[in-house]
């Protein structure tokens, strides 16, 4: 069949040894970036209750240290998003059920609606 991979990004994210840790470790001064994101979004309380969240997650090729890819997300919401979207999208991409572009758009547009779409794709709904 035709490969769903493009630009080599999927090949990287679908590799057995792919980890976001080394990418995250390479981010220079993340706390400062998080504070900038909080400021941009008008979030006054920028502490541990808020995650400096990647709009398009690193797991699917999102820029790790671009301010335009960061937003302050309440931590309790972030945990749900991680479980329902960020952990699921790479599996669907690597299984050929979703393209990288569609996954990035799904996540960046509305992650809650995206989570519902993914449940359908996974056969949970």
Summarize the structure in words.
- The structure is a single chain.
- This protein is mostly helical.
- The protein contains seven helices and two strands, in the order H-H-H-E-E-H-H-H-H.
- A two-stranded antiparallel ribbon has the order 1-2.
- Helix 6 packs across helix 7.
- The chain is globular.
- It starts with 8 loop residues before the first helix and ends with a helix.
List keywords for this structure.
disordered N terminus, 125 residues, 7 helices, mainly alpha
Distance between the termini: 28 Å
Task: Describe the largest sheet.
Answer: 2 strands, antiparallel
Principal-axis shape equals globular
Spell the H/E element sequence. HHHEEHHHH
Mean pLDDT: 87
**Uncertain stretches of 5 or more adjacent residues:** 1-6
Q: Percent range for helical residues?
A: 40-55%
The fraction of residues assigned to DSSP E strands is: 5-15%
Radius of gyration: 15 Å
| Continuous helix count | 7
Strand order of the largest sheet: 1-2
Number of strands: 2
Report the structural category: mainly alpha
